[in-house]
Amino acid sequence: MEVTTRVDLSGAQGLLQMPSTFMTHAQAGLQSAATYFVNAYGKVYPAQWSHRHTPEWTDRQRRYVMWAIRTGEIIVPYPRTQELAASWSTTLNGLTAIAGSTAGHARLVQGVRQATYHAITGWKNVAAAGLDESPRMYDLFKEHIGQWVG
User: Which structural domain, as residue segments, surrounds residue 130?
Assistant: First the structure.
């Protein structure tokens, strides 16, 4: 995957000794947290107005864009495909849940080292979003463990 975040409990070796019913609830909690992250972050685009803020373009960049529009390399207005949102998914492997995007351009838009343009137009990178969403993901995990404790 191009851009990922992980909820990982695999280092907690003591958990592996717990009854299988606990593991079922722990895995459900991890999957719930990862799914929440995908829906709260991966599939949410910034507000439309944020795209109107454009950085200062160099003459070279401006000339390239005008050339690309003239030759059909860039279509105006830009068609929104929603490919990035659709590319997010989750996988669960033992005590590790991974939420990620397989879109080739995800690293530029939402990656840790995202393009400056996307940062200033409202896209959060995956690390910042992980920190922002971690309290809710932790709560979701706790809810599933609470069901096991009863």
Answer: 3-149
